[in-house]
Amino acid sequence: PYTRWLGFWLDPRLTFRHHVRVMTTRAISRVQAFRMLANTIRGMSVKAARTIYLSNILSVLTFG
């Protein structure tokens, strides 16, 4: 019974719980992938990690 409208998941009571759940799941999966790439032994530079964070993880939290 959820409707997607302009990128938001709406439930009948307009509580946005489903939307928050979907966006949280999406962000967590990207954080887990990021953690595999940015390990401490043979990881990436801080600049590259920041770029990946800003372009992937923060964009999901901000724009969906």
Give the key terms.
64 residues, mainly alpha, elongated
Would you give an account of this structure?
The structure is a single chain. Strand 1 and strand 2 form a beta hairpin. The protein has one domain. The protein has 2 helices and 2 strands. The two termini are 20 Å apart. With 64 residues, the chain is mainly α. 0% of the residues are buried. Helix content is 61%, strand content 9%. It has a two-stranded antiparallel sheet with strand order 1-2. The longest helix is centred in the middle third of the chain and has 21 residues.
Task: Give the secondary structure arrangement, pairings included.
Blueprint (H helix, E strand, L loop, with lengths): L2 E3 L2 E3 L6 H21 L8 H18 L1
Antiparallel strand pairs: 1-2
Helix pairs in contact: 1-2
End-to-end span in angstroms?
20 Å
Overall mean confidence score, pLDDT: 86
Query: Into which percent range does the helicity of residues fall?
Result: 55-70%
The structural class is mainly alpha
Provide the domain count: 1
What amount of the residues lies in strands? 5-15%
Number of helices: 2
Q: How would a textbook summarize the main sheet?
A: 2 strands, antiparallel
The string of secondary-structure elements, in order, is EEHH
According to DSSP, the number of beta strands is: 2
Q: Evaluate the radius of gyration.
A: 15 Å
Indicate the low-confidence ranges by residue numbers: none
Strand order of the largest sheet: 1-2
Query: What global shape is seen?
Result: elongated
